[in-house]
Amino acid sequence: MQRFSRVRFMAVLKKEFLHIRRDRASLIMAIAMPLVMLLIFGYAINTDVEHLPTVVWDQAQTAESRELITSIRNTQYLDPDNFVQGYGEIEGYLDSGKARAAVIIPPDYGKKIQGMKQARVQVLVDGSDPTVARAAMSAVQMLGLNKSLQLQSERLATLGTVSGPEMPLNLETRVWYNPDMKSMVFNIPALIGLILQNVIAILTSFSIVREKERGTMEQLVVTPIRSLELLLGKLLPFVFIGFISMSLILVTGMFWFGVVPSGSIPLLFLLSTIFLVTILAIGLLISSIARTQLQAMQMTFVLLLPSILLSGFIFPRETMPKLLQIMGGLFPLTYFLEIVRGIFLKGVGIQYLWQDTLALCAFAIVFVAIASAKFKKNLD
Length: 380
Fold this sequence. Notes:
Blueprint: H1 6-22, H2 24-44, E1 52-58, H3 63-74, E2 78-83, H4 87-96, E3 101-105, H5 109-114, E4 119-126, H6 130-159, E5 169-176, H7 183-214, H8 216-221, H9 227-255, H10 265-289, H11 293-310, H12 322-328, H13 332-346, H14 350-379
Parallel strand pairs: 1-2, 1-3, 4-5
Antiparallel strand pairs: 3-4
Helix pairs in contact: 2-11, 7-9, 7-10, 7-11, 7-13, 9-10, 10-11, 10-13, 10-14, 11-12, 13-14
């Protein structure tokens, strides 16, 4: 048995350090990514829900109703900054996601408060995200209790009596879209986007690199095949795989988990096509840049992990700092989650999804153009 040789050990050690130094891409990711991930994780993982956009229909227009709105704002959970004049406008705000809660103050609110009767105020909560809905309902219930105790104290100090056994203020909450606030109803639709992104991006990013490593890319280059023909031939199978994956997820979610889309399934497939093209282009771009399958995998995970955290898949985007919300807007998954959850949970159509659809179209055009140019350059 040979003895341990310090010379041989140092030779291997030196060789590995030289290899790491020459592989600049892997070295940068190994050093920079832990710090980047720490910063992203530290700020993005936040379940404290605050400053939810809230719409108000104040039918009373009295000092008492304005005081209630101020009290709602002071909770720091709801931001009643939008005012409407009817249920139709409220529905539009909640369907589009511009508001996560709605407060409806009846016309007789001020009279009942002054007359020492119980005043009822309706609060509608978007239950599509159970985490946000529970936080909003908890804040509303606490506000109703504190406000009632305050009114009782004022009446006791002024009149020496309270109004009776009923609480002076009753904030009635109703949950829309996901009344039972089941997390499964919120998560299953989002898994369509997440699984499509992960599977298609990884498969596509390996496609060109695999040809490079095997040495078959040079053989393809010398053949009469054109770059467009090669590009389409490489990508179309993944389009087919993407639609099969989406169909399987959809059918399993409906019949196994019982999560049925409230909106149009054809619209879901149509908009998913745009998302799928975008992810294919991103995978192709990674494949064109990477030299090895290991590099392709590293680049893909650099994209995938932040998108999961910043897109709203796990944590509400409202809880993130503004900078991370802007960063989340750089990922196509962010917009696709809004689309798929809107169709599944709210049953909305393109009239409420057109902004997210335009964002996906812009991503698709940009990434397809860049990936095609890079792919053609590599062939030339």
